[in-house]
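Before any further analysis, we paired sequence with structure tokens, yielding the entry below:
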Amino acid sequence: AATDEQPRPVPASFGRALQRLTDALLGGGGLLLSLASHASASPVLVALLGSLPAEGAALDSLGAALLSWREGDQARADAASGGGGGGGGGGGGGKPRLASKAPPPPETVERVRSLSRDALGSRLVEALLLAAPRGWWSRVHAALRGDLRAMASHPLANFVVQALAASAPRRKELSLLLAEVGPAVPELVAQRAG
């Protein structure tokens, strides 16, 4: 429904409060990882991801902590993909990176795949992709590469695959995704009930 209401101005204190919340979550040791799968806390994290500036350092740091993505993992992804901006600590507005040739470390891949197959975790990965596609698309794609076909038929992970498709920064990235998932489309359609 259309509305004639003008957007309400957001007080500067709101941004500062979001930053304090983010800092507290990041400084809480392993607390953040346990909150990712907590029934009450996970939706709050999803809302926080959607509220932070898309190209900001706070969103990038929170995403890295949630996915167990260390700074060195991003440096390796940048080097393998030929550099590029949009994430990796500073969160500039540079060009989106393509998926790197070198996969992230096994523990990071396992964390991203595990979250993607979890009822609460999949929503976090989706929220991160939709909140900051330029900085996170190539990272999530790199972690899921090789397993995307199976994830597309998973009852929860398929939403992450859909978010990857919806948030692909350019046609080239979407083509990378479709190269792996596309051949499975007839099988996925046949599996649908009704």
Q: What stands out?
A: The radius of gyration is 17 Å. The longest helix spans residues 12-26.
